[in-house]
Amino acid sequence: MKPKQFLYLFLPFLLLGACAVTSKRSTPITQGNPTEFETLDLSEKGPIRFQKILAADWVAERNGLIHLKDPKAVAANLEPGKEPIQIYFYVIDHPKFGRYIIDTGMSSGFRKPQEEWPVPGFISSRMNGDKLKTKITIQEWLAKDPKKVEGAFLTHMHMDHIFGSLDLPAGTPLITGPGESADSRFIHLFVQSATDRILGENISLSELKFDTKDGKTTRILDYFGDKSFYVIYVPGHTAGSLAFLIKSTNGSQLVLGDTCHTKWGWENQVPPGEYTKDREANIESLNYLKQISLKFPKIQVHPGHQSIGDK
Ligand SMILES: [Zn+2]
Predict the structure, then answer these.
(1) Percent of the chain topping pLDDT 70
(2) What is the 274 CA–ligand 1 centroid distance (Å)?
């Protein structure tokens, strides 16, 4: 491509200084009952069979995962470097509403040699691709435990949370938080086409609505309306980040997404570092999730990329 053509092609993005995470557009959906924090009741076990699946082992930069300038990180002498992390997806089997997953793990494409992965080479080398070790793909997992996936909730649309999308049957709804697919950041100029490719041709993107009433935005939706599965709006890491509170047969589970990537970040209440878009909003959302865990101390917490205990 000639430099002039290149300039014309990218001029709109250069002017805006950013572009959306994906060029695919989502349909707003209204689902679930708005719920107040004060009315949450987790005293009884719920009907959902909850499974956390380790999809891949990986490493990432500590200064992306944890805000190293936070006084608590400074006091703990945390230094920049590589941090071992994992990629997970979660399976929600509801006796009445069927199977949903949260995030999409890995797709079969990642079983191929790295040069054939469904991400461009310059991205896989930048993201420590040589350290990304797939444990199980969505296709392999569904072959072992077959059941229709009614939909996949995305904690957010960063690539490591949608890597498995191509393994889902065509048309499986992907459900995001408000403004997530249009979330703009300069970096997206480089990753938009990769994100589109990972999502595949046949996706259906839905965006959950969280209404604002009297200047107050709903934070929690009782998704099925039976108080078993709550979707929590936690903007900050990305515009439409979501967390999930699940009343399972094994007790209550809190899936944080990348509002907090690491065990250390959760235990010390320190937000992510450079991987987060809006740190102030991320801190507010992290504090909100912490409040839930303090109200229900028995809750099992699942940070975005590490585990607490052996759960
Ligand atoms: Zn992530």
Answers:
(1) 92
(2) 12
